[in-house]
Structure formats: structure tokens, C-alpha cells
Amino acid sequence: MDNHPINEQEYLASNIAAVRASIQEAAERVGRRPQEITLIAVSKTKPVSMVETAYHAGITNFGENRVQDALPKIAVFRPQGIRWHMIGRLQSNKAHKVASSFDAVHSIDSLHLAQALNRYREIEGKDRLPVLLEVNIAGEQSKAGLSAAEAPELARQIARLPYLDLQGLMTVAPRVDDPEEVRPVFRALRFLQYRLRDELPDCSWQHLSMGMTDDYCIAIEEGATIVRVGRAIFGERVL
Ligand SMILES: *Cc1c(COP(=O)(O)O)cnc(C)c1O
Question: Does the predicted model carry a pTM greater than 0.90?
């Protein structure tokens, strides 16, 4: 368990304030407005009590990467205005649970998965599910996501699904020592966004979900509209 010298409430509040300040500074460095950047607190492996504390410190967007771990938290903590984001690798056999519990999915990388989510969203009688295509920009073998070359065709097919709302792109940058090294990855996702905007103007393409604890400031400089921050808010994960 996390063992912090100060209480959990103060610990999370000061972490969140520090992250918000960094978001603001990064945005201002490139002439962007900080309000256009959504902070998702990635609460994976953390107990729902911490989610609740972060919520009371002003966080309304939470990210989880495993359906089984997330569902119990979502079931007990659903106050007004909260949004739960699925950010991890997702198999189609979990699509039903995700479609009924989550408010957005960042990790779409196949038509099969998109179709399953679309179908269950319809069955559940829910509104359109906001989704992002996960793109493996760096082409890492170990990572989920489709290649940039595959994105336009998959986007075209997903754009036709009536219960999904394709809003943009997501990527997970490689782990590096110096975050500057991943700047080209974020930039490439932005260039892909420009291209898709031209080719498929019917989708909003408003979101670039990119940047985690080690690199979210660089991602913001490169156009991130959503950053997914875990450790800088909740502390290291001990697993
Ligand atoms: C865990 C995770 C994050 C957050 O990572 P941190 O380094 O803890 O900020 C962001 N995105 C995805 C897809 C993740 O799995």
C-alpha cells in the first residue's frame, strides 16, 4: 500500500496542483489555452478511495487499462460529471461491459472491436460512444495500436458506425530516458490528424490523446488535447 508522509488528501491535491501548473506552463509556451487540455487521471491499480479523493480535488476524468479492475470502481463511484476512459488493450469479448460502463474508449485498433462496441451501445440504448484510434506511431512490436498507414481505412469504416463517435487519435510513446526523444512521435500523430481531417472531414478529429507522466509537457507542446497521467498524480504503482 502507498505509505505517504502526509495524508492522502493533501498528497493528491498537491500532486494534482503541480500537474495542472505544468500543463498550464506547457500550453503557454506554445501559445495554447490550458482549458483546451483535458487531464485524465490514470487510476489503474489504485483503490477506489483514491479515485474518490482525486475527484474531490477536482478530477473528473479517470483512465483505466483493465476492464476487470475498472468495473468494480465504476460500479461504486459514478458521481455527477465523472467520466471513465478505457485506455488499455481491449478484446472484443469485453466489448459488452465496456460499452455499458465506460464513457469513452481510447484504444480502438480493429474494426471487429469497433463493431462490437457499436452493437452493444445500440443494444444498451446508450448514446454514441466517443472513441479514438490507437496508433502505434513508433512501430514497436510490443505495443498495441495500428500503423499510421492503416489508420485512414479503419477510420473510414468506423466513421460509418452509428453508435460510435470517432473523435481523434491516441498513442503511447516509447519509453526513453530523455522525453525530448519522443517529440517526433507526438508530432507524427498530429500530422496524421491533419491528413485524416482532409480525407474524412465528417469526423471532428478534435482529440489527440497523448502524453503520460514522463512526457505530457512535450505532448502538449505538440498539440495534445488529452493527457493521461498516472504516477505524477497517484504515485508509483507497486505491482
Ligand atoms: C498507465 C498508462 C498511462 C499513465 O502512465 P503514467 O506513466 O503512470 O502517467 C497512460 N496511458 C496508458 C495507455 C497507460 O496504460
Answer: yes
